[in-house]
Design goal:
The protein has about 300 residues and is α/β, with parallel strands linked by helices. It has one domain: Class I glutamine amidotransferase (GATase) domain (Rossmann fold), CATH 3.40.50.880. Helix content is about 30%, strand content about 25%. It has ten helices and twelve strands. Strands 1, 2, 3, 4, 5, 6, 7, 8, 9, 10, 11 and 12 form a twelve-stranded mixed β-sheet that branches. Helix 1 packs across helix 3. The longest helix has 17 residues. About 0% of the residues have low confidence. Pathway: Amino-acid biosynthesis; L-methionine biosynthesis via de novo pathway; O-acetyl-L-homoserine from L-homoserine: step 1/1. Its EC number is 2.3.1.31. Keywords: Acyltransferase, Amino-acid biosynthesis, Cytoplasm, Methionine biosynthesis, Transferase. It catalyses: L-homoserine + acetyl-CoA = O-acetyl-L-homoserine + CoA. One of its GO terms (molecular function) is homoserine O-acetyltransferase activity.
């Protein structure tokens, strides 16, 4: 499908090498259709990598999508240039009067901090509140999922005994949900986090349902019963090498990390990791776009008010 993005976004070069159809603004302006309006709030440090990962996954339906990026102006990015942010990203004050079919909120490496201690928490609360009336469906990832559950439903995270990292098997608990159409009973997904959420806390909220769970990694996917919000605690968007890069980064920091589970063949760092989750990733994001967003969002987005 065509993804419509800013003409000179560096991610375009990577995606075109993978034969992914990327449409720049100039060409899209000549197509007489209404594209889906998707906003990505990118909280990850290496924003360029996350841009490629998410745009790749949004490319798997025949829908035309207009993608815009948002960053928190109350936080100073250390791993992405101000030039890149100024050129390709909006600030919240610049989009708060706009409406979107879908919003993706990424993870962030701040999970060991109380939510209120995160320097952009107040601004993020504003995004969460705004999304209720200006976004049709929101997909939250990892810390973004924990933050969303905390803000919207007062479900707090808890600290794990050690970092959960690796590739884990997951059971589909709610196969009748449209976002899980086409899934096998079991699939694999990466996790990389120090905190989690408890099943008991989610079950206490009438509006929510646990859709996917792992015996070893816990809850993976929670859905709001109105299809307006989904919360994924793992990282299906990760590339083959992402967990390896995080492991090596932690080694350099002197953290002495444990090997990601079920990742390196025979736990041998000299063997390239097996890619076992991209099929599930493509299907999950395609289903979200098709069933939760496209087939339900109003043509006139101002009807969300």
């Amino acid at each position: 499908m065509p993804i419509r993005v800013p003409k000179e976004l560096p991610a375009i070069k990577v995606l075109r090498k993978e034969n992914i159809f990327v449409m720049d603004e100039d060409r899209a302006m000549h197509q007489d259709i209404r594209p889906l309006e998707i906003l990505i709030l990118n909280l990850m440090p290496k924003k360029n990598e996350t841009e490629v990962q998410l745009l790749r996954l949004l490319s798997n339906t025949p829908l035309q999508i207009n993608v815009e990026f948002l960053h928190m102006s109350s936080h100073e990015a250390k791993n992405t240039s101000s030039e890149h942010l100024n050129r390709f990203y909006y600030r919240f004050k610049e989009v708060r009067d706009k409406f979107y079919d879908g919003l993706i909120i990424t993870g962030a490496p701040v999970e060991q901090m109380p939510f209120e201690d995160v320097d952009y928490w107040e601004e993020l609360e504003g995004v969460f509140e705004w999304s209720k009336s200006h976004v049709f469906s929101t997909f939250h990832i990892c810390w973004g999922a924990q933050a969303g559950l905390y803000y919207h439903h007062r479900i707090d995270k808890y600290l794990l005994d050690q970092k959960l990292t690796g590739i884990y098997a997951h059971d589909v608990l709610a196969p009748t949900w449209s976002i899980l159409k086409g899934f096998d009973d079991l699939f694999f997904a990466p996790h990389s986090r120090y905190t989690g959420i408890k099943r008991h806390d989610v079950d206490q909220v009438e509006a929510l349902e646990v859709l996917v769970e792992s015996k070893d990694a816990g809850i993976f996917l929670v859905g709001n019963k109105n299809n307006r919000a989904f919360y994924a605690t793992g990282h299906l968007e990760y590339d083959r090498e992402t967990l390896q890069q995080e492991f090596e980064r932690d080694q350099l920091k002197g953290i002495h990390p444990k090997l990601p589970r079920n990742y390196f063949p025979n736990d041998n760092l000299d063997e390239p990791p097996k890619l076992r989750w991209h099929m599930a990733a493509s299907l999950l994001f395609s289903n979200w776009l098709n069933y939760a967003v496209y087939q339900n969002t109003p043509y006139d987005l101002t009807e969300l008010l």
